[in-house]
């Protein structure tokens, strides 16, 4: 006859629920899994499948009732860790979209926007093109597998425990979020400078020949120059994209290695 104690039952339930919660938190935000085009049912089933595979290898603390206050706090902590890891990867794609927004507005295509179900708002066409480019580069480099690997390693570097984690990881995450603007500007700066020179040339042309209708020819020239510049710049965007995506993976690893709070305060 098969018998088991309540402590064993708590351990079995916790061995699956807590790791799966961290995984689902990551999948709900991190691209490409966190895209609104991916059905919620697919995310949940994928998270459960990964949780089943990783559960036997995840270090679990001594048996704690998952429905107790301590168990619920651990559940909330795992969800917060997973969301933080997903957000760290999402920052890179937000920077790419910011580069597309800057380029689009400089080209005069800021009005060419459509509803993006992922961000639940209006997104410029150039921004969406850059985002798709970043997604293809991410998948071609097996970035999704590296992301899942970093998350799996975090169960050993940042094990599941009832001890609260420090605020050091959240401080690093806040600093990482500020890189949206710097990375976006780095990607779009060559295009912005070239388009600025184009606008200067149009201004000089208008001063030299006032009879020209700037609004009639300026928009067409700027837009055409922007598309030509994007076509030339796309091959050279691969290297910075690879670097930014690698930095995103490293940030996920860093968040997964933040130690818990020390029992005694440092002197």
Automatic annotation (TrEMBL):
The keyword Cell membrane belongs to this UniProt entry's keyword annotation: yes
Domain of life from the UniProt record: Bacteria
UniProt membrane topology term: Multi-pass membrane protein
CC per GO annotation: bacterial-type flagellum basal body; plasma membrane
Keywords, sorted A to Z: Bacterial flagellum, Cell membrane, Cell projection, Cilium, Flagellum, Membrane, Transmembrane, Transmembrane helix
GO BP annotation list: bacterial-type flagellum assembly; protein targeting
Subcellular location: Cell membrane; Bacterial flagellum basal body
Primary location group: membrane
Residue spans crossing the bilayer: 9-29, 41-60, 72-96, 125-148, 189-208, 214-234
NCBIfam families: fliR
Family: Belongs to the FliR/MopE/SpaR family.
Its job: Role in flagellar biosynthesis.
Protein name stated in the entry: Flagellar biosynthetic protein FliR
Organism: Herbaspirillum aquaticum
Lineage, uppermost ranks: Bacteria, Pseudomonadati, Pseudomonadota, Betaproteobacteria, Burkholderiales
Encoding gene (name): fliR
């Amino acid at each position: 006859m098969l018998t088991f104690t309540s402590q064993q039952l708590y351990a079995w339930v916790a061995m699956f629920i807590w790791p799966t919660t961290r995984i689902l938190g990551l999948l709900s935000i991190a691209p490409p899994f966190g895209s609104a085009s991916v059905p919620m049912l697919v995310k949940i089933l994928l998270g459960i499948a990964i949780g089943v595979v990783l559960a036997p290898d995840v270090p679990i603390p001594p048996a704690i009732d998952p429905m107790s206050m301590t168990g619920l706090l651990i559940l909330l902590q795992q969800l917060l860790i997973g969301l933080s890891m997903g957000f760290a990867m999402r920052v890179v794609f937000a920077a790419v979209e910011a580069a597309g927004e800057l380029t689009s507005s400089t080209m005069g295509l800021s009005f060419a926007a459509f509803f993006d179900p992922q961000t639940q708002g209006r997104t410029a066409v150039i921004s969406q093109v850059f985002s798709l480019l970043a997604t293809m580069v991410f998948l071609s480099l097996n970035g999704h597998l590296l992301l899942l690997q970093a998350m799996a390693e975090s169960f050993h570097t940042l094990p599941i425990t009832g001890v609260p984690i420090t605020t050091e990881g959240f401080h690093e995450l806040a600093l990482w979020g500020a890189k949206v603007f710097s990375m976006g500007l780095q990607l779009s700066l060559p295009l912005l400078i070239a388009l600025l020179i184009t606008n200067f040339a149009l201004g000089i042309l208008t001063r030299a020949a006032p009879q020209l209708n700037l609004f009639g020819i300026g928009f067409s020239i700027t837009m055409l120059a922007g598309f030509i510049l994007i076509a030339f710049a796309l091959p050279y965007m691969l290297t910075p994209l690879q670097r930014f995506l690698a930095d995103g993976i490293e940030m996920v690893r860093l968040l997964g290695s933040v130690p818990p709070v020390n029992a005694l305060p440092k002197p």
